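Example record

The entry below shows one chain as it appears in the dataset: sequence first, then structure tokens.
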Amino acid sequence: MLNDTQVKHAKPKDKKYRLGDGNGLNLIITPNGKKTWVYRYRFNGKENTATFGQYPDTPLLKARQKHTEARKLLKEGVDPNAHKKQEKIKSSLSMGSTFEEMFLQWFESNKDSWKENYQHDVLTRSKRHLFPYIGNRHVGDITAQEMLSVFKIIESAGTIDTLHKVKGNASRVFRFCVGIGMIGHDPTRDLPSEIFKRKKVKHLAHISDPKEIGGLLRMLDEYKGSYQIENALKIAPYVFLRPAELAGLEWSEVDFDDKLIRINANRMKMKTTHLVPLAPQVIAILEKVRSIKTNSKYVFPSPITGSRHISPESLRAGLRRMGLTNEEMTTHGFRHMASTRLYELGYKGDIIERQLAHGERNKIKAAYNHAEHLEDRRIMMNEWADYLDELRKQR
């Protein structure tokens, strides 16, 4: 075993060498005079080394203490290096102690898996509804009653949807802190949903009477605005897409040869590829739009910059400019309009639901189901387009 004098007076040589202290603990001396404590050990049959610091910052006694702790971990079946990394991560995460600091760590850890709009919404809601009340509070001191007071402020404003979103995000931050061992439990867990007002179920407005559908289509024909909004709204009754899916449509997703739209899974609500058979009426509109050279990857690029697409909100605004109120028709209402009429016209539910891209409960099955009933759906979509044309002519 080494003593303090040997360690202190160990001189550098032309090549790196080591002095052993026993049981795998060594002092490595390099030609430049650096002295480092290194523990050589085996774990799961593989040789590893753990570094305990440099002399004199880490004296002999301290190195032996670390060595003893490492050997104890090995006896317990724990890799000392893995344990050290775990402790370092835990320590770095625990540096932030206020709710706002921990929120930002949680946000940074997860934001890359979220869409940009969702990132913005999460951050904005938290800055508005959480930070002013608990942002500077130590995350471990926040109680369920304190969170109840915060949520009741949101509830009193009548924004029940916002309340549930903010509550969900707060819970995720607290559970993040539980996961890293910073706190023992999530205080929002003790707040049952029954103590909050329920959001009233409000069905999205849509037109389903055949005569009114014909009138709507004639209004769309007469719409005068930007070509992006005009053509997106004209396509909407034919394709059953959600507003965000339609607004963000990319040329790479339009297959003129196969007469299909193939929307990438990452853009779909259910995260599976979605196929939309294109009737001749839709292809004609898309051909017209394609003739407008924008050099954008989007079918409906933003008038401000071609690097972005129009927003779903701009489609809703287009309906308002046509004189349709929010109680009469929404952009999502085109889907409900098609669903209602197709069921009434006698089409099979499986075909309608698949075309609406409603979720398949079995996710594995859903990954392979995007082409299910495709030929039947082609027939339905062509017949639907012809049906709309007939309604347009009737007055």
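Notes for this example: The first strand starts at residue 17 and ends at 22. The chain has a mean pLDDT of 87.
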